[in-house]
Amino acid sequence: MADIVEIKRMLADRAQAVAEMLLPGGRKESQEWRAGSTAGEKGQSLGVHLSGPKAGIWQDFATDEGGDLLDLWMAVKGGTLLDALKDASSYLGVTHPEPFKEPSKSYQRPKRPDCRKPEAKVHDYLTVDRNLPGYVLDAYKIGERGDEILFPFILPDGVLALAKARKAEAKASPKPTAGNCEPILFGWQAVPANAREIIITEGEIDAMSWAAYGHAAMSVPFGGGKGAKQQWIENEFDRLARFETIYLSMDMDPTGEEAVAEIVSRLGRHRCRVVALPLKDANDCLVEGVTQAEMDDALRTAKTMDPEGLRRASDYHDKVVHLFWPAHEEREGFSTPYSKLIGRLHFRPAEMTLWSGASGSGKSQMISDCVPHWVREGSRVCVASLEMKGEQTLRRMVKQTGGVDRPTEPFIRQCLNYLDPGLLIYERVGKAGVQALLEVFEYARAKYACDQFVIDSLMRMGVASDDYVGQEKAVFQIVDWAVEKAVHVHLVAHARKGEKGGGAPSLEDVKGASEIGSNAFNILTIWRDRQREEDIRKGGEGADESDKPGVIVNVAKQRNGDFEGKVGLWFDQDTYQYQSTPDKAQWRRSFIGRGQQERVA
Ligand SMILES: Nc1ncnc2c1ncn2[C@@H]1O[C@H](COP(=O)(O)OP(=O)(O)OP(=O)(O)O)[C@@H](O)[C@H]1O
What ranges does the record give for the region Disordered, renumbered to this chain (predicted)? Predict the structure, then answer.
C-alpha cells in the first residue's frame, strides 16, 4: 500500500471523480461539489472544493463535519482510517505488486505474563518517580509483577506480540519475557484508530510521557541504533502507512541519530520530522515540569528531513577518516566469491555496477553465482529477473548454492531456505518501465531493508536499443535512486563487441549511450572463450588440459577502488559456478552441509 501522503495527493488530483463517486446525489456548482449530507442526497449544506490548493477539502455547515477526502471516505462508508486507505488505494489502482518471494521469518507469540494492574511498587514508581498519570498506565495496559513493570506490545487487533519486563527502579533495563517474538512498536493499544500523527520514541516510558502531554506516541522495541535494532520496521511498515506525520523523538545521542537515519530512509523523509527536546528525553521533561506549551512547540518546530545541501569539507571529517580506517567489523562493500578478486573489487553502497559482455557470455550467471555469497555476507538482495521466470533463476542458483549438479528434493529445500532470509525475487518476464521497477525496489528497500538490487537487463526496461537518450535517462534515474537510498544496483547491459572479438570487452564496448558507462561506478565485462570450448568439444577430453582460463572478467572501471584489470576464471559446467583455479580438486563451493562452511575457490 502507498502511504497516506501519496494517496491524499492522488485523491485531491481527481477530487471531482471522488466526490461524485462518494456523493452521487450531489452536483457541481462552480468549483465545488454540493450535496445535502454525507448520506449523499441532493442539497446545499455540504461542499467539496474541486480544484486549487484546497482541492478535496470539504465542510458540512449543517453538522460542522469536515476534513479531506479520506475523512469524507470514512464519513460516507464508515470504517477506520486504515480501511479507507486500503479502499482508496484499490480505487486508485496503487496497490503494490506482491513480490514473488519474501524473506520469511517465523515468530512465536509470548504467553500472557502473570501480572495485575499496577497498585503497589510499580504504581508508585511510575506515578511518583516518573510522574506518569494513572490513566496513561491504563491506556498502555501496563502490568505489575512483584517489583517488575510489564510492558505489553499489543497489535492493533489485540494480539500480544511481545512483552518486556523491567524492575521498577532507575536505570533498570527491560528484557523480553520470551524469545523469538515479533518486534513491533509499543503502544498501539493507546493510539486512537484514526490518528494521523504519531510520535515514535526510544523507550516505553518516553512514549507514555508524550501521551501524558496528550499526544499519540509509541516506542521502538529495542532502542536506538541501526540495522537489526530497527528490524521492527518490516513488521510495522504497512500499519504505519496511515500516518501523515511521524515525529521521531529519539534520545539526542549517536545511537538515537543512527535510529533516526534508518527510520527516515525507510519510512520516507517526506513524512518524518525530528523532534529536539529541551531535556534529554520526554520523561525528563515530564519529571522536570516542562510545560504543555513547550512540548507542543517542540513538535511544531520539529525539523523536516529535507536533503541537506552544500557542506564544508570539514563536515565530512568523520566519514573521510572512516574511509581510510574502517572499523574492524565493517566491510567496504559486498565482494565476489572469487579469491582473485577478494580485497580488489567491492560493491559499495550508493553505487551502480554495470555488467557488460556479449550475449551468452555469462553475465546473469555470474551475478547469480555471487548471490549465495552475498547472502552469506549478510546482504539482502532483490533480483528483478526480467529475462527469466523465478523458478529458472532459482534452479541455477540452487546448483550454485549447493555446489552440486543434480540436487535431491530435500537438498533443494535446504538451498532455498538458505537463500530465503537474503533474497527477494521480483518476477516480471517482459519489459518493465524504469519508474515502475524503481517503485518495486523502493518498497523492497523500505520494507525489507534490501541493500543490493539486480536489474537483468537494461534491454528489458522498455527502452529501445537505439534510443540513446532514453537509455541515458534510465541509467540516470537508477544511479540517482541508488545514491539516494545508499544501496548498490547491479545493471546488466549488452556489449557492442561480438563473440568473436578478441578478449573481454573494454570500457568503450558497452552497447548504447556512452553515458551508461560514464554513470556507472564499476564496469565489469565478461568474455568467454568460445573458440576453446569448440576445440574441447571437437578434441574430446584431451583438449581440456590447458590451464588457460575459459572466462575473462575485466574490471574495466572501479571509481572508488584501487584495482582495475583482467582476471581469468574457470567455469564448472556441473554446478554453474565460476572458480579461480584450474585445479578441479579445489572446485565446489557449498553454502550448505557440513558446518555450512563456504570455501572460496
Ligand atoms: N563460460 C561458459 N561456459 C559454458 N557455458 C556458459 C558459460 N557462460 C555462460 N554459459 C551458458 O550460456 C547461457 C547464457 O548465460 P547467461 O544467461 O548468463 O548469459 P548473459 O551474458 O546474461 O546473456 P544475455 O546477455 O543473452 O542475457 C547459459 O546457458 C549459461 O549456462
Answer: 95-116, 580-601
Structural domain including 265 reads 121-304
Is 412 a domain residue? yes
- Which of 177-191, 290-304, 482-496 comes out lowest in average pLDDT? 482-496
CA of 378 to the centre of ligand 1 (A): 27
Tens of pLDDT, residues 461-478: 888 777 888 888 899 999
The residue whose CA has the least distance to atom 13 of ligand 1 is 360
The reply to whether 515 and 412 lie within a common domain is yes
- Give distance in angstroms: CA of 358 to centre of ligand 1: 9
Residue 453 sits in the same domain as residue 546? yes
Sheet containing strand 565-572, edge to edge, reads 423-427, 381-385, 452-456, 488-494, 351-357, 522-528, 551-558, 565-572, 577-579
Residues 88 and 125 reside in one and the same domain: no
Q: Do 358 and 493 contact (CB within 8 A), yes or no?
A: no
Whether 19 maps to a domain, the answer reads yes
Q: For position 157, which CATH number holds?
A: 3.40.1360.10
pTM summary value: 0.62
Whether 8 and 143 share a structural domain: no
Residue 136 lies in a domain: yes
With cut-offs at 50, 70 and 90, classify the pLDDT of residue 153. very high
Q: How far is the CA of 584 from the centre of ligand 1 (A)?
A: 21
Whether residues 359 and 213 share a domain: the answer is no
First-to-last alpha carbon distance for the chain, in angstroms, is 44
Ligand 1 first shell, C-beta below 6 A:
357, 359-365, 387, 494, 528, 550-551, 571
**What's the gap in Å between 365 CA and the centre of ligand 1?**
6
Q: How far does the centroid of ligand 1 lie from the alpha carbon of residue 362, in Å?
A: 4
**Residue 571 CA, closest ligand 1 atom number:** 1
Best probe residue, ligand 1, of 361, 529, 536 (max atoms within 8 Å of C-beta): 361
Q: Does one domain contain both 152 and 265?
A: yes
**The Cα angle at residue 427 between residues 421 and 431, in degrees rounded to 5:** 145
Which tops the pLDDT comparison, 230 or 104?
230
Residue 8 within a domain: yes
With cell 581469468, the residue in question is 568
Number of domains present in the structure of the chain? 3
